[in-house]
Amino acid sequence: MKYIYIKTWGCQMNEYDSSMIVKSLEKNNEYLITENVEKASILILNTCSIREKAQEKVFHQLGRWRKLKKNNPEIIIAVGGCVATQEGKEIFKRANYVDIVFGTQTLHRLPKMISEVKKNRKYFIDISFPKLEKFNYSLQPKKTGCTAFISIMEGCNKYCSFCVVPYTRGNEISRPCDDILFEISILAKKGVREINLLGQNVNAYQGPTFNGQICYFSELIRLVAEIEGIDRIRFTTSNPLEFTDDIIEVYRDTPKLVSFLHLPVQSGSNKILSLMKRSYTIEDYQFIIEKLISARPDIQISSDFIVGFPGESEIDFQKTIMFIKKINFDMSFSFIYSNRPGTPASEIKDNINLKEKKKRLYILQNIINIQTMMWSRKMFGSTQSVLVEGISNMNVMELYGRTENNRIVTFTGKSSMIGQFVNLKITKIHTHSLKGELI
Ligand code: SAH
Ligand code: F3S
């Protein structure tokens, strides 16, 4: 038996892609996945290029694998994902011991590429963009637990000035609605209770249906909510740009859709939003939130922020801070702007020094942390519906699960509760988790 070792960096889309890679390689029982890199004869790196550091990490990792290959020249090293798509042949130049470079849309061809390399002992590269082809190989996904991610669309057409995604994942394209529903219904039969609909811009979803119509995102959520066994629906990531009223209506009438929304705003300054080519203003964003609150009064909002975008003045930064307080964002992601070659923003003069950028990030993250803690404290004494995911890493006598607003709760319970929803009373609030008691 041959063993494969796979390392994945980056977003949930990459995690999902890696699960498809594993499935395609395990299919013919020729390969088996291993957690032990020393044991493997095929090493796969699924890469991310969203920020500089992610890219440099790739070559450091490959350097480590080079040593393994020196001891065993039979080892095949494959590099895929966003760095592979962007760098292409350059990867072979910088790391000539790499055998395969594959793209975000060609991962299903990996078994064939591996057998080619074995036969001919030649480099192999395929970073083309065959539309949705990879999904033809992904129906009937493996069950991973009581929650599952389902990719509903690929790529992005928004071309925000700082972002590489449209170049590495291609244009937006939606998977057929019926394929998605089929996949989810199989998962539901296998015990999945929570679905997370994945895509770079899920609210731009426009999937073809079997009768030649188009299914929009709001309708897709309604259809998923009708699948027996699925009791909780999340999605990642949506964009304020196409957050239309029909989606807000779903919040009004679909309780299975969680009261927690990740809606990246990036900055609280209209000047910076315009330089970022985000195509909305903070007033537009605020209007969406107001409508959401009227449809779902208990909704909590999280976001992504970029600090130190070229041209961001102290006043622009203060506007972001004020906006964070105004919306009362819950736990969020924040990043220092990273110049990505080939993006329009890389042409703008970067006038802020790193020390200042770090200071801004520190201030912003502190405020987010305080707000996150306030949201958690509000939960003290409340009853929460928790989907039990497994045995706690910290204490094997306890179970852990997730609340609707994405908090981990640990509690004492029976192992038969794993995979089920339980009602817990929240008895303790920690920084990164909560404690609860069964009701
Ligand atoms: N589709 C999502 C974004 C996906 S990328 C959206 O509409 O917002 C995930 C996050 O990475 C972005 O929200 C942004 O905050 C961050 N990011 C992307 N490119 C970046 C860059 N060049 N520098 C710093 N952060 C970046
Ligand atoms: Fe990137 Fe903007 Fe699309 S952040 S993923 S180009 S919406």
Automatic annotation (TrEMBL):
Q: Which residues form the MTTase N-terminal domain?
A: 2-119
Domain (TRAM): residue spans on this chain: 377-439
Q: What is the lineage of its organism?
A: Bacteria, Pseudomonadati, Pseudomonadota, Gammaproteobacteria, Enterobacterales
Q: Which GO terms describe its cellular component?
A: cytosol
InterPro entries documented for this protein: Elp3/MiaA/NifB-like_rSAM (IPR006638), Methylthiotransferase (IPR005839), Methylthiotransferase_CS (IPR020612), Methylthiotransferase_N (IPR013848), Methylthiotransferase_N_sf (IPR038135), MiaB_methiolase (IPR006463), rSAM (IPR007197), rSAM_horseshoe (IPR023404)
Specify the species.
Answer: Buchnera aphidicola (Brevicoryne brassicae)
Protein family (similarity comment): Belongs to the methylthiotransferase family. MiaB subfamily.
Q: What does this protein do?
A: Catalyzes the methylthiolation of N6-(dimethylallyl)adenosine (i(6)A), leading to the formation of 2-methylthio-N6-(dimethylallyl)adenosine (ms(2)i(6)A) at position 37 in tRNAs that read codons beginning with uridine.
UniProt subunit comment: Monomer.
Q: What is this protein called?
A: tRNA-2-methylthio-N(6)-dimethylallyladenosine synthase
Subcellular location per the Swiss-Prot or TrEMBL entry: Cytoplasm
Keyword 4Fe-4S in the entry? The reply is yes
Q: Which SMART domains match?
A: Elp3
**Which cofactors are reported in the record for this sequence?**
[4Fe-4S] cluster
